[in-house]
Amino acid sequence: ELYFKNLSKQKQKEVMEKNGNNHKLRVCVATCNRADYSKLAPIMFGIKAEPQFFELDVVVLGSHLIDDYGNTYRMIEQDDFDIHTRLHTIVRGEDEAAMVESVGLALVKLPDVLNRLKPDIMIVHGDRFDALALATSAALMNIRILHIEGGEVSGTIDDSIRHAITKLAHYHVCCTRSAEQHLIAMCEDHDRILLAGCPSYDKLLSAKNKDYMSIIRMWLGEDVKPRDYIVALQHPVTTDIKHSIKMFELTLDALISFNKRTLVLFPNVDAGSKEMVRVMRKKGIEHHPNFRAVKHVPFDQFIQLVAHAGCMIGNSSCGVREVGAFGTPVINLGTRQTGRETGENVLHVRDADTQDKILHALQLQFGKQYPCSKIYGDGNAVPRILKFLKSIDLKEPLQKKFCFPPVKDNISQDIDHILETQSALSVDLGGTNLRVAIVSMKGEIVKKYTQLNPKTYEDRLDLILKMCVEAASEAVNLNCRILGVGISTGGRVNPREGIVLHSTKLIQEWSSVDLRTPISDALHLPVWVDNDGNCAALAERKFGHGKGIENFVTLITGTGIGGGIIHQHELIHGSSFCAAELGHIVVSLDGPECLCGSQGCIEAYASGIALQREAKKLHDEDLLLVEGMSMKKEEVVSAAHLIQAAKLGNRKAESILRTAGTALGLGVVNILHTMNPSLVILSGVLASHYVNAVKDVIHRQALSSVKTVDVVVSNLADPALLGAASLVLDYTTRRIY
């Protein structure tokens, strides 16, 4: 035993010598309230687990030490951390003057503590007024500051405080790429910025599968079921206290009317919180049978409560940040979180000025389940932060320098100085092949995987998951950060739910299929699904001829005929997700039969299947082959043979292609008269053969007001894959109600 202990000590010594530093880094972590402790605790556990590198001192101040806010310092003790110093810094009053006096009191008390501790570095979190006092004291006492969650944007005075702390801090740990870019734009040194993700996500992403029913029963009652209760957490807005109190009153009225069991957490210590508590008591919330009002819930239990709630409502940053990890619906009220990056699960009610508006938002969101979002982290923040701390050279000059370079575009730098590219996993489900690709923000297909599309649902889903997992693993080696999964598939798709409603005949066992849930659960990534025609239109909007065009139509000419419509920069889905079935526009009442069961559709004339059908007829009558053509005995007749025959002067083949081009052109004319786009993009293998015929029909048949429309052939090699990627890369995450 003694031998192994000595061996372990020797290894630790070697590591420290290798780093050129025999001095343990003395880290002071100061926590002010329950919210910042949830972010700091994972870092504190990580520091405590490596005593060969770090010494940890914990300072507790602010609302942690107030009974009205739950005496939350106890949870720090329960986590087995030694609290070095407790500082009572809150001046009661819960108004603007009390906040200023609290900062002043903290500034008076902190110098003595810091003189005794003499930390090498202080870790400060977030944007609270207590944190500003910490950063100011440390900066004036020549103590290096590591700021967590700088560069983010939100409403209220918190924004100004956060950016002020950024200017005082020497090192920065940010959670999102946008935050990183904001820090660079604020002239912070890029080498001192770590894009790590949110530390709380290290805990969140592994928390959902734990036992939760006992926690739900403890806080909400024995009769409450998962997804059948609400968590409400609302704080005052210090720049508009009167309005925020009125909004809180309307929220409580809406929750009473909605008549669901609700856990209401008391607001934070900001100015206006006392008035909000008065509103709760005036409405009898603490004694109402549908409500449970509490000052504090331990973070481990709070995670389980929001993970299995039917909805969360309020204006806490937790709603727009942490809750996205579980896909729980969130209603974000007012302006307190304006500017925050949010997932698909967040519905914003910016102007929450009526009870009916909040009640309607509850009706829209309650009970839904969204894909889990990893905007704020991937579960590996703490190892990155610890590595970053170890890299700090205390011999470097303390005086921080500001940089004034142009903002770097699409560059992310972690502690290893690895450039990561924001990317999407793109899936294309075709009739023959199943393809998965890693696609960068610029539309570059970094790597592509192709397999035959299985015939059964189970085999197909298993193969999708296997290929996606393989691609996601390879993305790490390729320095690509996967933001989500986009899926392009044939058939009618409900993109809101990620469900294939009805499939084409080319893909068997592919109706009423939920693609989003199993893939999102397996990969812990958000998943978007849409029809292949719509994806082609999205690809053109982001990467092709449609970039910057307000109104355009994409037509895919391949095995079938499909397409997508972009109107006022947005994709049109239709009331039953059947918009842009352009191949089934009827151009003749007595035309050939279509696979859809109708007659005279564009697809019955101009699709690859239709041309193959006509080619077989000619071949059976021995009228297909002309001089310069040959076919092997076992070779299958295809549309390519018809096109080749027409090029070599076969009059009948030319006539068939002319008819097909005319049918497609008439369909385009109908689209022009209905949608009036400024651009028509022909995509697919047959596009170049039809473009002149379509232009000719427009010139002869269209109204003069639409004849000037541009008709072009797509220059994209893989529109389905690129379109599926754009579902991820361009998805609008900020919805406004």
Automatic annotation (TrEMBL):
Sequence positions that bind Zn(2+): 584, 594, 596, 601
Reactions accelerated catalytically: an N-acyl-D-mannosamine + ATP = an N-acyl-D-mannosamine 6-phosphate + ADP + H(+); UDP-N-acetyl-alpha-D-glucosamine + H2O = aldehydo-N-acetyl-D-mannosamine + UDP + H(+)
Biochemical pathway: Amino-sugar metabolism; N-acetylneuraminate biosynthesis
Keywords: Allosteric enzyme, ATP-binding, Cytoplasm, Hydrolase, Kinase, Metal-binding, Multifunctional enzyme, Nucleotide-binding, Phosphoprotein, Transferase, Zinc
EC number: 2.7.1.60, 3.2.1.183
MF annotations from Gene Ontology: ATP binding; hydrolase activity, hydrolyzing O-glycosyl compounds; metal ion binding; N-acylmannosamine kinase activity; UDP-N-acetylglucosamine 2-epimerase activity
GO cellular component: cytosol
Catalytic residues of the enzyme: 532
Residues in UDP-N-acetylglucosamine 2-epimerase domain copies: 53-390
Subcellular localization: Cytoplasm, Cytosol
Pfam entry (one): ROK
GO aspect biological process, one term: UDP-N-acetylglucosamine metabolic process
CDD domains to which the protein is assigned, alphabetical: ASKHA_NBD_ROK_GNE, GTB_UDP-GlcNAc_2-Epimerase
Family: In the C-terminal section; belongs to the ROK (NagC/XylR) family. In the N-terminal section; belongs to the UDP-N-acetylglucosamine 2-epimerase family.
Subunit description: Homodimer. Homotetramer. Homohexamer. The hexameric form exhibits both enzyme activities, whereas the dimeric form only catalyzes the phosphorylation of N-acyl-D-mannosamine.
PANTHER family recorded: BIFUNCTIONAL UDP-N-ACETYLGLUCOSAMINE 2-EPIMERASE_N-ACETYLMANNOSAMINE KINASE (PTHR18964:SF149), ROK (REPRESSOR, ORF, KINASE) FAMILY (PTHR18964)
Protein name: Bifunctional UDP-N-acetylglucosamine 2-epimerase/N-acetylmannosamine kinase
